[in-house]
Design goal:
This is DUF2889 family protein. Pfam families: DUF2889. By secondary structure, this protein is α+β, with helices and mostly antiparallel strands. It has two domains: 115 residues; 83 residues, no CATH class. It is 17% helix and 15% strand. Strands 1, 4, 5 and 6 form a four-stranded antiparallel sheet that branches. The protein has a two-stranded antiparallel sheet with strand order 2-3. A hairpin with a 2-residue loop joins strand 2 and strand 3. The longest helix is centred in the middle third of the chain and has 9 residues.
Length: 212
């Protein structure tokens, strides 16, 4: 998050000249292919109270062990809300699930029609052992927004096999995780993630939280 004012600003710690940030904050996490947080780091490059705001940075290692799709936002707020952390860094936590999903869609799970050239035993199995490219599962993104609703024009045109699809109740439950859009009525299935690590996701307003 970068916070700049088009004027000189009088802070308790002194005048911050026009062009110098009031805040410049970073939050970086490393995730595995199941969206588990395996490392976390916060940085406060510019703050209104130099030498004091930075003291809370190590608290963000509390994110390690959380899963971006399992109540992540709620757990982050519980662990880091109030005086436990920095208000702005804690707010950045909320966009991490979206950043991760956007970064890895099509890479670690299928966003194409699984009926078109998917290979069995391709190594894309979900945590429950099912194959991510299974022909009986719609592409991950379907049923998660207005444009890609199952009864919409986009699905009819680009994914005709799934037009009018009514997800099973188990799929609706799976897609209601914290890192995915909650479904009511028609919705899509959630995809599983493979084991592995080394995927970094950064939150910063300059990249709109979608830099990975």
């Amino acid at each position: 998050m970068t916070d700049e004012k088009p004027r000189d600003v009088l802070l308790a710690s002194g005048v911050r000249p026009n062009g110098q940030p009031i805040h410049e904050l970073w939050l970086r996490i490393t995730i595995d292919r199941k969206l588990n947080v395996v490392d976390a780091e916060a940085s406060s490059d510019w703050v209104p109270y130099p030498g004091l705001c930075q003291v809370s940075n190590p608290a963000y290692r509390a994110l390690i062990g959380l899963n971006l799709r399992q109540n992540f936002r709620r757990e982050a707020a519980r662990l880091l809300g109030g005086t436990e952390g920095c208000t702005h860094l804690t707010e950045l936590c909320a966009i991490l699930p979206t950043a991760a999903i956007q970064a890895f869609a099509g890479e670690v799970w299928s966003t194409g029609d699984s009926a078109k050239g998917a290979k069995a035993s391709s190594g894309n199995e979900s945590p429950d052992g099912s194959n991510e490219h299974s022909n009986d599962k719609p592409p991950f993104q379907l049923g998660r927004c207005h444009a890609l609703r199952f009864d919409g024009e986009a699905v009819q045109q680009f994914y005709p096999r799934w037009y009018g699809h009514a997800p099973r109740s188990a799929e609706r439950v799976a897609s209601s995780g914290d890192g995915a859009v909650r479904q009511t009525g028609k919705g899509g299935n959630a995809s599983g993630m493979n084991d592995g690590s080394g995927n970094e996701v950064q939150s910063n307003s300059q990249t709109e939280g979608n830099h990975a």
